[in-house]
Amino acid sequence: MPIRFTPLDPTGADRDALIAFMSSQSFPFHVRTHPTATQISQAIDDGAYADEDHASFWIDSDEHGRLGFFRLEDLSDDAPLFDLRLDTAHRGRGLAAEVLHAATDHVFTTMPEVNRFEGQTREDNVAMRRVFVRCGWVQEAYYREGWPVDDGRLLASVAYSILRRDWRDGTVTPVVWDAPLGG
Fold first, then answer.
1. Exposed/middle/buried for 103, CB within 10 Å: 0-12, 13-18, 19+?
2. What are the pLDDT digits (tens) for 36-59?
3. Is residue 128 part of a domain?
4. Other C-beta atoms within 10 Å of 33: how many?
5. Local structure of residue 13 (DSSP, 8 states)
6. Mean pLDDT of successive 10-residue segments in the chain (183 residues)?
7. CATH value at residue 50
8. Do 159 and 132 contact (CB within 8 A), yes or no?
9. What number of CA atoms fall less than 13 Å from residue 179's CA on the CB side?
10. Which domain holds residue 136?
Protein backbone atom coordinates (compact mmCIF):
# COMPACT_ATOMS: atom_id res chain seq x y z
CA MET A 1 0.00 0.00 0.00
CA PRO A 2 1.89 3.10 -1.16
CA ILE A 3 1.74 6.01 1.26
CA ARG A 4 1.72 9.55 -0.15
CA PHE A 5 2.46 12.77 1.68
CA THR A 6 0.24 15.40 0.12
CA PRO A 7 1.48 18.91 0.98
CA LEU A 8 -1.21 20.94 2.65
CA ASP A 9 -1.75 24.67 2.78
CA PRO A 10 -2.76 25.35 6.39
CA THR A 11 -3.20 29.09 5.90
CA GLY A 12 -5.25 28.72 2.72
CA ALA A 13 -7.17 25.93 1.01
CA ASP A 14 -6.60 23.31 3.74
CA ARG A 15 -7.16 25.49 6.81
CA ASP A 16 -10.74 24.41 7.56
CA ALA A 17 -10.00 20.73 6.90
CA LEU A 18 -6.92 20.82 9.14
CA ILE A 19 -8.83 22.53 11.96
CA ALA A 20 -11.67 20.01 11.60
CA PHE A 21 -9.32 17.02 11.60
CA MET A 22 -7.26 18.16 14.57
CA SER A 23 -10.17 19.32 16.73
CA SER A 24 -12.60 16.46 16.03
CA GLN A 25 -10.41 13.68 17.36
CA SER A 26 -8.57 12.69 20.48
CA PHE A 27 -4.81 12.15 20.34
CA PRO A 28 -4.18 10.32 23.61
CA PHE A 29 -0.37 10.22 23.37
CA HIS A 30 0.20 13.86 22.43
CA VAL A 31 0.74 16.80 24.77
CA ARG A 32 -2.64 18.24 23.71
CA THR A 33 -4.92 15.24 23.68
CA HIS A 34 -8.05 17.17 22.69
CA PRO A 35 -6.98 20.27 20.74
CA THR A 36 -9.73 22.81 20.19
CA ALA A 37 -10.52 24.58 16.94
CA THR A 38 -9.37 27.84 18.56
CA GLN A 39 -6.03 26.33 19.59
CA ILE A 40 -5.41 24.89 16.12
CA SER A 41 -6.43 28.14 14.43
CA GLN A 42 -4.02 30.09 16.63
CA ALA A 43 -1.21 27.60 15.98
CA ILE A 44 -1.79 27.94 12.23
CA ASP A 45 -1.64 31.73 12.56
CA ASP A 46 1.59 31.40 14.58
CA GLY A 47 3.25 29.36 11.82
CA ALA A 48 3.25 26.01 13.62
CA TYR A 49 2.09 24.21 10.49
CA ALA A 50 3.95 26.07 7.73
CA ASP A 51 6.99 28.30 8.04
CA GLU A 52 10.76 27.92 7.66
CA ASP A 53 10.77 25.26 10.41
CA HIS A 54 7.51 23.41 9.64
CA ALA A 55 5.98 21.59 6.67
CA SER A 56 2.62 19.83 6.88
CA PHE A 57 1.14 17.00 4.85
CA TRP A 58 -1.95 14.85 4.58
CA ILE A 59 -1.13 11.15 4.73
CA ASP A 60 -2.93 9.46 1.83
CA SER A 61 -3.22 5.91 0.56
CA ASP A 62 -4.95 4.51 -2.53
CA GLU A 63 -6.24 1.60 -0.50
CA HIS A 64 -7.42 3.42 2.64
CA GLY A 65 -7.89 7.05 1.57
CA ARG A 66 -6.82 9.80 3.94
CA LEU A 67 -5.01 8.23 6.88
CA GLY A 68 -4.16 11.34 8.84
CA PHE A 69 -1.73 14.20 9.26
CA PHE A 70 2.07 14.44 9.24
CA ARG A 71 4.24 17.44 10.10
CA LEU A 72 7.97 17.95 9.87
CA GLU A 73 9.43 20.23 12.52
CA ASP A 74 12.83 21.88 13.05
CA LEU A 75 13.48 22.01 9.32
CA SER A 76 16.21 24.65 9.73
CA ASP A 77 18.17 22.05 11.71
CA ASP A 78 19.92 19.09 10.08
CA ALA A 79 17.90 16.68 12.24
CA PRO A 80 14.17 17.33 11.82
CA LEU A 81 11.49 15.90 14.09
CA PHE A 82 8.00 14.76 13.14
CA ASP A 83 4.43 14.86 14.40
CA LEU A 84 2.26 11.95 13.24
CA ARG A 85 -1.49 11.80 13.84
CA LEU A 86 -3.50 8.96 12.38
CA ASP A 87 -7.24 9.30 12.01
CA THR A 88 -9.02 7.33 14.74
CA ALA A 89 -10.47 4.94 12.14
CA HIS A 90 -6.97 3.94 11.02
CA ARG A 91 -5.31 3.37 14.40
CA GLY A 92 -4.43 -0.09 15.64
CA ARG A 93 -4.25 -1.55 12.12
CA GLY A 94 -0.47 -1.61 11.66
CA LEU A 95 -0.41 1.41 9.36
CA ALA A 96 1.94 3.54 11.48
CA ALA A 97 4.97 1.48 10.46
CA GLU A 98 4.16 1.96 6.77
CA VAL A 99 3.73 5.68 7.37
CA LEU A 100 7.01 5.95 9.29
CA HIS A 101 8.89 4.05 6.56
CA ALA A 102 7.41 6.37 3.94
CA ALA A 103 8.21 9.44 6.04
CA THR A 104 11.80 8.32 6.48
CA ASP A 105 12.11 7.73 2.73
CA HIS A 106 10.60 11.16 2.08
CA VAL A 107 13.01 12.97 4.41
CA PHE A 108 16.16 11.26 3.20
CA THR A 109 15.29 11.45 -0.50
CA THR A 110 14.14 15.08 -0.52
CA MET A 111 16.47 16.61 2.08
CA PRO A 112 20.09 15.77 1.23
CA GLU A 113 21.44 17.87 4.12
CA VAL A 114 19.63 15.79 6.74
CA ASN A 115 21.76 13.15 8.46
CA ARG A 116 19.39 12.23 11.32
CA PHE A 117 15.62 12.04 11.50
CA GLU A 118 14.15 12.18 15.01
CA GLY A 119 10.92 11.43 16.83
CA GLN A 120 9.63 11.32 20.39
CA THR A 121 6.75 9.69 22.16
CA ARG A 122 5.55 9.08 25.68
CA GLU A 123 6.86 6.13 27.67
CA ASP A 124 3.40 4.55 27.74
CA ASN A 125 2.89 4.71 23.97
CA VAL A 126 4.09 1.14 23.59
CA ALA A 127 2.61 0.75 20.12
CA MET A 128 4.59 3.69 18.70
CA ARG A 129 7.73 2.61 20.49
CA ARG A 130 7.40 -0.77 18.78
CA VAL A 131 6.87 0.99 15.44
CA PHE A 132 10.11 2.92 15.89
CA VAL A 133 12.05 -0.29 16.55
CA ARG A 134 10.34 -2.21 13.72
CA CYS A 135 11.32 0.61 11.33
CA GLY A 136 15.01 0.52 12.31
CA TRP A 137 14.97 3.55 14.59
CA VAL A 138 17.09 3.51 17.76
CA GLN A 139 16.12 4.76 21.20
CA GLU A 140 18.59 7.49 22.11
CA ALA A 141 17.12 9.15 25.17
CA TYR A 142 14.70 8.64 28.03
CA TYR A 143 13.77 12.01 29.49
CA ARG A 144 12.38 11.18 32.91
CA GLU A 145 9.25 13.16 33.81
CA GLY A 146 9.65 15.13 30.59
CA TRP A 147 6.11 14.82 29.20
CA PRO A 148 3.20 16.48 31.03
CA VAL A 149 -0.15 14.71 30.76
CA ASP A 150 -3.70 15.94 31.26
CA ASP A 151 -4.08 14.55 34.78
CA GLY A 152 -1.02 16.48 36.01
CA ARG A 153 1.39 13.55 36.02
CA LEU A 154 4.76 13.73 34.33
CA LEU A 155 5.71 10.76 32.16
CA ALA A 156 8.99 10.08 30.43
CA SER A 157 9.55 11.31 26.90
CA VAL A 158 11.40 8.70 24.84
CA ALA A 159 13.48 9.88 21.87
CA TYR A 160 14.33 7.80 18.80
CA SER A 161 16.24 8.50 15.61
CA ILE A 162 17.44 6.95 12.41
CA LEU A 163 20.69 7.86 10.68
CA ARG A 164 20.88 8.43 6.95
CA ARG A 165 23.52 5.71 6.58
CA ASP A 166 21.36 3.19 8.44
CA TRP A 167 18.37 4.04 6.21
CA ARG A 168 20.57 3.79 3.08
CA ASP A 169 22.34 0.56 4.09
CA GLY A 170 19.48 -1.17 5.92
CA THR A 171 21.51 -1.31 9.14
CA VAL A 172 20.95 -0.25 12.74
CA THR A 173 23.77 1.52 14.56
CA PRO A 174 23.25 1.03 18.31
CA VAL A 175 23.87 3.68 20.91
CA VAL A 176 26.94 3.12 23.06
CA TRP A 177 25.38 3.71 26.46
CA ASP A 178 28.39 3.00 28.65
CA ALA A 179 31.15 4.68 26.68
CA PRO A 180 34.28 5.51 28.70
CA LEU A 181 34.22 9.07 29.97
CA GLY A 182 37.90 9.69 29.40
CA GLY A 183 39.76 11.76 31.60
1. buried
2. 999 999 999 999 999 999 999 999
3. yes
4. 12
5. T
6. 92 97 91 90 95 96 93 94 93 92 97 96 96 97 93 94 98 89 71
7. 3.40.630.30
8. no
9. 7
10. 3-169
